[in-house]
């Protein structure tokens, strides 16, 4: 088959951050093979990331056993349910097999993805080396250590080397994660911003429009599913106060599912500080729960996105926002896009950092607690003033 007519399957099922950071693979493959059939196999959770991706042809989402109220004490019902689920999975694998892929790129290489890669029957099966047994599935292997010390949005591009795709650092700088944002996504965010603009017009706040078409604001994303990786809430409130004093622009607090109470407490703390200083409480804005794509557009329209190294940071990068990530136990090199004109990371230079642990074994989280508000504030000013 002619190179440009190849059928290619990208295998990267989850988590959402991994899928998003893997999307440059599709873009680079499309550049190499403009007329190829390029598909993606994933968990259904990734629909919100992958749907409408301009570099992909088809998406395949594997069956997931749905939770139900079936009486677990009914052995017969549980047995029937599992038999049907097994049948659904077999049918799904047959469907994948029928695609007759020429190339499969397993960007995860766990037991499930290895089985899927083998089932495709593709003559070229690429992955990175992991366990000796799973490695037998593939005939093109990249050493796992080759992916270390590189921004994770670019690291998996190493898997394209067996296809004679070797990207230089300057080429990678132009590659970002991809999240399609529709007109509907934009309109929902704009509707909320217009409502807030109307409220601001009844205050003494002078609305500015140097970045957003509606009004300038600074976006803070203070969450992380692991508490050990969060910059202290009090530091975020103090930073918000400093930014308001500097730019006279509102703060928007970004949050995701189950994070509303934690972030709302910061919003209320900032409002109290504003009130104590005779400033309008409307300088602190608490938005509704936005989808990932809506959050991306909200981030892109902000003067700057500032937050922990969380999933929303990758959404912001994909949407084109200026981002400032705050790191403690994690490595900035791995998680922050290397384009320093738009994306910066901050971390202490001494003491306990980059332990990569999900549990802090010290008496306090010095890696983030000792990251000063002044340092974050000054770095944010530099990034905001940088021309793109």
Write the topology of this structure.
Elements: E1 7-11, H1 16-22, H2 24-32, E2 37-42, H3 47-50, E3 58-61, H4 75-97, E4 103-106, H5 111-120, E5 124-128, H6 132-135, E6 140-142, H7 152-155, H8 169-172, H9 183-200, E7 218-221, H10 233-247, E8 251-253, H11 260-276, E9 284-285, H12 292-300, E10 305-308, H13 311-319, E11 323-326, H14 332-335, E12 343-346, H15 366-369, H16 373-385
Parallel strand pairs: 1-2, 1-4, 2-3, 4-5, 5-6, 7-8, 7-10, 8-9, 10-11, 11-12
Helix pairs in contact: 1-13, 9-12, 10-11, 10-16, 12-13
Q: Explain this structure to me?
A:
The chain has 388 residues and is α/β, with parallel strands linked by helices. It folds into 2 domains: 3-172, 3-Layer(aba) Sandwich (Rossmann fold); 183-385, Rossmann fold (3-Layer(aba) Sandwich), CATH 3.40.50.2000. 40% of the residues lie in helices and 12% in strands. The protein is built from 16 helices and 12 strands. It has helices at 16-22, 24-32, 47-50, 75-97, 111-120, 132-135, 152-155, 169-172, 183-200, 233-247, 260-276, 292-300, 311-319, 332-335, 366-369, 373-385, and strands spanning 7-11, 37-42, 58-61, 103-106, 124-128, 140-142, 218-221, 251-253, 284-285, 305-308, 323-326, 343-346. The strands form 2 sheets. The protein has a 6-stranded parallel β-sheet, sandwiched between helices. It has a 6-stranded parallel β-sheet with strand order 9-8-7-10-11-12, sandwiched between helices. Strand 2 (37-42), helix 3 and strand 3 form a beta-alpha-beta unit. Helix 9 packs across helix 12 (292-300) and helix 10 (233-247) crosses helix 16 (373-385). The mean pLDDT is 94.
